Automatic annotation (TrEMBL), chain B:
It comes from Mucilaginibacter frigoritolerans. Belongs to the bacterial ribosomal protein bS18 family. This is Small ribosomal subunit protein bS18. One of its GO terms (cellular component) is cytosolic small ribosomal subunit. GO terms for biological process: translation. Part of the 30S ribosomal subunit. Forms a tight heterodimer with protein bS6. Binds as a heterodimer with protein bS6 to the central domain of the 16S rRNA, where it helps stabilize the platform of the 30S subunit.
Length: 122, 87
């Protein structure tokens, strides 16, 4: 078992309900295949830094889960077949990333961020 | 006699007293989040290119991680691949 994190970018043409439904579909793919979802985060509609398939915005959704490696292939095939998905990115998390995400979830992140910006000002 | 006047072949270096340092090592940051586009902005120029280590002072270990994070952020559309007007 390895911990992963996937960011899915959906086309902005969907209504909020349809987008939520599409995301739920992929969560189901994960849980049905024995993955354990650690965290989900919906970023909502965001502006893209550059147009993708002639679209300038996209629905972002982040899922963090624990699964075995062969499930990733299954999930990515589903994502590639889906026309509503503009982009996706799956990352295997190392121990530092897991620690960082846990910190972020517990709210320590809000204290951490100003430290970073302070550093840049110097 | 002629040695009284010291001449330099190359101009003497004026030392910059501020030493560059790796901010990740200094602050004990071990993971660079590709989802935090605002943070990554500090490591790219206004064309969206990754800044060299000689300008940012980042250690090699973390420079590789910065580059990886920037590439990931570009893929999911958080940072541009090419632009002229970043920042």
């Amino acid at each position: 078992m390895q911990q992963y994190e996937i960011v899915i970018v959906l086309t902005p043409l969907l209504s909020v309900e349809v987008a939520a439904e599409a995301i739920a579909k992929y969560s189901r793919v994960l849980t049905d295949n024995g993955a354990e979802i650690v965290q989900e985060d919906n970023w909502g509609l965001r502006k893209l830094a550059y147009p993708i398939q002639k679209k300038t915005t996209g629905y972002y959704h982040l899922t963090e889960f624990r699964a075995s490696g062969d499930l990733i292939n299954k999930l990515e095939i589903e994502l590639r077949r889906d026309e509503r998905v503009l982009r996706f990115l799956t990352i295997a998390l190392d121990k530092h990333a897991i620690a960082y995400n846990e910190k972020k979830r517990s709210g320590a992140f809000n204290q951490k961020k100003p430290v970073k910006t302070e550093e840049a000002a110097r | 006699m002629a040695n009284d006047q010291i001449k330099y072949v190359t101009a003497p270096k004026v030392e910059d007293t501020r030493k560059k340092y790796c901010r990740f090592k200094k602050n004990g940051i071990k993971y660079i989040d590709y989802k935090d586009a605002n943070f990554l902005l500090k490591f790219i120029n206004d064309q969206g290119k990754v800044l060299p280590r000689r300008l940012t002072g980042t250690s090699l270990k973390f420079q590789r991680k910065v580059a990886q994070a920037v590439k990931r952020a570009r893929h999911i559309g958080l940072l541009p691949y090419v632009t002229d007007s970043l920042k």
